[in-house]
# Entry
Amino acid sequence: MIKENLFGKTLFELQEIVVKLGFQKFVAKQLTDWMYKKRIHSFEEMRNLSKPTREKLAEKYKLSFTDSTSVQESIDGTKKYLFPLKGNQFIETAFIPEGERATLCVSSQVGCKMGCLFCMTGKQGFQGNLTAGEILNQIFNLPDFEKLTNVVYMGMGEPLDNLDEVLKSIEILTADYGLAWSPKRITVSTIGIIPAMKRFLVLSKANLAVSLHSPFEEERKNLMPIESVYHLPKLLDEIRAFEFGGQRRVSFEYIMFKGVNDQQKHINELARILNGIKCRINLIRFHAIPGTPLESSSNETILRFQDGLKRKGIVTTIRASRGEDIFAACGLLSTKELVKRKKNEVY
Amino acid sequence: MNKSGKIPLFKTNFNTIQKIAPGVFTLTFPRTEDFRPGQMLAITLNKAEDPRLYSIASGNFEKEYRILFDIQSEGFLTPRLAELKSGDTLYISRPFGSFYGGSGLDWWIAAGTGIAPFISMLEVGMAEGKTLIHGGRKLESFYFADAFKLVLKDNYIRCSSVLNEEGIYAGRLTEYLLHIENLPMDINYYICGSSQLVVDVRDLLIKRGVPYNQIIAEIYF
# Structure
């Protein structure tokens, strides 16, 4: 019998499980204390559970954590961890220290279905969704866990294409029964799957980052096939209509491509389409991937673009490139070399 | 989109289901409004469940929508769609999306059921001057082959890495695209299929010199 992993279950899910096993509901709370607050790795260590309770839990369920199998460290201190999953699959996680701040960039899928032209993850296709436990394992089982200040869902995969598991993982990070983090410490990135984004905004309080990359629909469609399905004006209308409140942030990620999206007309159009949205634009230098027809804009162009946006009244930052030498920078995470292609692909 | 983030869905009754190949079906139901070929519908059997997206595979002169699907063994919806009986209830969205074909001498590239939007384009007369490259494993995987053959004639290219049949390119469609001489550089390429197909074909076309902004893709997700 394959035992189900309890790590990554929400309090509600655990309550259902323990009640089915014939225990009192409060046992679920004891489990969350041990798993998420004390971060222990076995039922035997759960000292306030009776021995029969521990035995019955261990008979039906497991507490499974996975260590990273390799870590690469950049000259700038960024570390890239490789975590194995079931089925001979792998994901990468980037730990990015920066002064007092330490951000973990977690993966939510193995590979990605979205096929963005500039992204290395997209080149490996899609191999599967992570469970909430597999998402959280990247955080809880990180050697640098104690240093973490922020988590961004910007690793491999489109988080909102795996929304249920992403939401569960955020609940465990932010709930009183879990790590009790402020949701302000968490940012979820999306390319703009509108129905899932709306659900995310309603069901979570974490920050939202939207991959924009061009204010023009036809141009964005060439970079991001999702534009054929969910159109930018509709996406922005939905964001504009949502009441974010004082603390919650929405930002737009904008990778700078030389001669593609870095001209004055882009500044003008960004100012027009973002009118009425309290937001920040993050300009990102493009990290070239094999076979790409795209090049990064120069530093001078990026600075000029930032200045142009600021003149239009848009808060604009330039994201520092981190971990480029170990392929941990934005858009470079990939386990393609470890993916075994399906033999029955039809094309 | 309503406040909960759900796509607005409308009740309709399923009309017919037709098995066109092992595990592959077309499903028809009444058309509620106009659409452009290349658009899609969100479909579910139960409003409480998240709908799945399907390209419309019929012409917009028809009174019905048609979709094309294959049963995914671990799929959430397709095994149940295949069991529908005439008159059963479906919930569908308004048509949306913008994978519209062009009017030039475009190439259409698809694998498996990724052919769906091109069936719609074919049925409204948009196939004139187009070239279709369709990848499949078996002869029956080339859905609507007769209709495409009739209009596209020599510009209908079927690729299979397992078949050895006259008139069918023996190899994957990526091999076909890799080896074909005089690949046009001044047309648009429309690709529809899995993310892996789209990424592989797009990379290959770019490598052969096709400008990336002449490649338009729709990914099944």
